[in-house]
What we know:
The complex is a heterodimer. By secondary structure, chain A is mainly β. Chain A has helices spanning 2-19, 210-214, 291-306, 334-348, 374-380, 386-393, 673-677, 682-688, and strands at 52-58, 62-72, 75-89, 92-106, 114-120, 130-139, 143-152, 159-163, 181-192, 198-204, 224-232, 236-243, 247-256, 310-317, 321-328, 355-362, 365-373, 395-398, 417-424, 427-428, 437-449, 454-466, 495-508, 511-519, 524-533, 540-552, 560-575, 581-589, 595-604, 610-618, 631-639, 651-657. In chain A, the strands form 3 sheets. In chain A, strands 19, 20, 21, 22, 23, 24, 25, 26, 27, 28, 29, 30, 31 and 32 form a 14-stranded antiparallel sheet that branches. A 12-stranded antiparallel β-barrel of chain A has the order 1-2-3-4-5-6-7-9-10-11-12-13. In chain A, strands 14-15-16-17-18 form a 5-stranded mixed sheet. Chain B has 4 helices and 12 strands; from the N terminus they run ααααββββββββββββ. Chain B has a single domain (60-230), classed as YmcC-like fold (Beta Barrel), CATH 2.40.360. The termini of chain B are far apart. Chains A and B meet through helix 1, helix 6 and strand 19 of A and helix 1, strand 2, strand 3, strand 5 and strand 6 of B.
Amino acid sequence: xxxxxxxxxxxxxxxxxxxxxxxxxxxxxxxxxxxxxxxxxxxxxxxxxxxxxxxxxxxxxxxxxxxxxxxxxxxxxxxxxxxxxxxxxxxxxxxxxxxxxxxxxxxxxxxxxxxxxxxxxxxxxxxxxxxxxxxxxxxxxxxxxxxxxxxxxxxxxxxxxxxxxxxxxxxxxxxxxxxxxxxxxxxxxxxxxxxxxxxxxxxxxxxxxxxxxxxxxxxxxxxxxxxxxxxxxxxxxxxxxxxxxxxxxxxxxxxxxxxxxxxxxxxxxxxxxxxxxxxxxxxxxxxxxxxxxxxxxxxxxxxxxxxxxxxxxxxxxxxxxxxxxxxxxxxxxxxxxxxxxxxxxxxxxxxxxxxxxxxxxxxxxxxxxxxxxxxxxxxxxxxxxxxxxxxxxxxxxxxxxxxxxxxxxxxxxxxxxxxxxxxxxxxxxxxxxxxxxxxxxxxxxxxxxxxxxxxxxxxxxxxxxxxxxxxxxxxxxxxxxxxxxxxxxxxxxxxxxxxxxxxxxxxxxxxxxxxxxxxxxxxxxxxxxxxxxxxxxxxxxxxxxxxxxxxxxxxxxxxxxxxxxxxxxxxxxxxxxxxxxxxxxxxxxxxxxxxxxxxxxxxxxxxxxxxxxxxxxxxxxxxxxxxxxxxxxxxxxxxxxxxxxxxxxxxxxxxxxxxxxxxxxxxxxxxxxxxxxxxxxxxxxxxxxxxxxx
Amino acid sequence: xxxxxxxxxxxxxxxxxxxxxxxxxxxxxxxxxxxxxxxxxxxxxxxxxxxxxxxxxxxxxxxxxxxxxxxxxxxxxxxxxxxxxxxxxxxxxxxxxxxxxxxxxxxxxxxxxxxxxxxxxxxxxxxxxxxxxxxxxxxxxxxxxxxxxxxxxxxxxxxxxxxxxxxxxxxxxxxxxxxxxxxxxxxxxxxxxxxxxxxxxxxxxxxxxxxxxxxxxxxxxxxxxxxxxxxxxx
Lengths: 694, 234
């Protein structure tokens, strides 16, 4: 009978859906460079917000990889590393590390096409540097035409106008080359064929490929390029191209989207139901007069909460208030832990307890205190507006180091020794042998807590496979080799990447402090001290860090080389609260003794994905900077929860750029304060508060 | 090389959630439970024991005897369904929970929230007089109502999908539910808005009591089917 009902339901569903069925139509696809576009030419299309893709590309004259990320709904960023064949001489390739940005100025509407402006090799006048404006218009659901005007490389064939003079290619930081010199027209068409997931493309290229033809035997015979893309599901796409009338190219792209987890997130246990206290509940608080009763209550509560991944660090109960400092070891979103905890407290504490004051810890430090009134919880639970109402009724404040008052219960440090494993995937883009060196490492981490504030940390890394460091030679950099000899550290292992004594504390409710000493990272050991001022209800903070460090030996686990230095930065952190974007500026002295600044922008999604892009400028001349010009890069942090059907706080990070540059190199400390506590301020809690009732 | 890479990645992934605090990766645990020595024999014995037991027949009399409001929910390809029992009440909103504490909140017969059964529906607000929330004879159902669905998003209110639902009376339908037969009317609510289109289906008695219902819980979760075996009465 159930099946019959389903048939009826399905028939009704299908019948209704058929009234307004939407065809799949043409979806935004990648070009031969790993960014959204036609083949070599760009278009004005954008990927879905947050879409992230790795592409492996080869177009006959170059090969490499690209990390493409839809930074905002109208902003696309692409970090690309390509090897340009025969660039400086026959047989000598040039490794180019670029950051591309594309901004959609107008979305497509009715008769109006979409308009975009873009920059290839943004702020750098390198071999692939170019700027463009482009318009794209859909004709029906399966055809898109695009036309644009390009400068730089994209203005090198059949220019139609010229604006001033474009400086010669020099790979230096600057903006004077932008939209300067010859400009040429380009265009193309994309057609979604009747064959599912197959798109055909054709374009007229305004790139003369002058540099590629200077040496070697490459000849550009035609401005017309042809291509085909086939999508295998929503995660994998393949592209094949016939370019320049002479070359065959291909592309493989793997995509994911932090807004679309590939497995359901909530197949575990739901939250505890909440019933309101009866109006005539007992007002007797005589139990609160007995200290032993009060501490025993907190102790029992903490044991129950530990079963659900919530560890009580400190607790105090009075007749009307319960205060808890907790470590959330299970839920990826803090409000989910707090909400579930509040529900449990509503069902397990004496009815006179009206206020729950919950403080979330991060890395052993109390961060934000949330004050929740039990009567609010009872009134809001399961109602439609519960999310906004609960955020509005919750009080937020910076937490002091300890709960004030007498009768505070705290457990023995029951887990003095904690440990775990995590994978790590370093990428070396500037190897002596070309590009694409990559390792897969397994890191074992152990922590021994001497007190709440003081701990010893050990990290050992074992290479499982990879080729970083194969045949590596000492760097020829003219700066102290603080990073350019990185490949020489990539021995088979196991290697001690960290062995430190760490002390952290709070000097005031909004002021955090840390001192670390020992082998701070794989390449340096020493002493590092840090201060951070970051009120919980403020979306920005200030930090200062100074370290005296000495460079470690390549092979001797505990030995040092001669190089030593004092390094440190002052930092400004700003959580914009807009589209999950965070900005950071670090100014100071880097490991090689150079002074400068690093500008970082990251987008941290609600589900834990984080994409960061940074740029470092220092006093070191471009000639001395080694590979690349000024340092820039992009990294992607992916929590495992995204791929697992259960809550987990594990994550891995993959980075493009920043490997092997001596200038602008910062000490790689594992437990900096801001990254430790940043997920717990009110801006972050606001963005994740939807999980409070989950 | 490919096998080595896949093996190394599998090892790294498997160990990644293996910590002193979190125990063993649940995926690893599940695999181990399947492949450990004697596991298949244990499974066969358990299946044989289950087959030997007489089937449990649920009747309305037994439901009534519990004294609890009970609904049965089926998700996806599940054919047996899961029993959920009324566990908490806040005004008109009654939350039912399974033994595994998967929960559904109902306003009358309208599912207004779900937890731990896939993609959560945070909340659902509907117009006053929505006939799915208050027993209403089929002939008295209004033309339409507006419903606001909320799902996890970047604000405390989450992501809002607002739809207009138009009701349409269908044919009479004889429903066999547990040990009884009911004469019902098939009612559809065709909903659209904010890029979503779906149809909920309800089997309604003459007095307005909904006995069986297929309801949309979101773009990712899709449809959930529920039987109101014993409605909540304050």
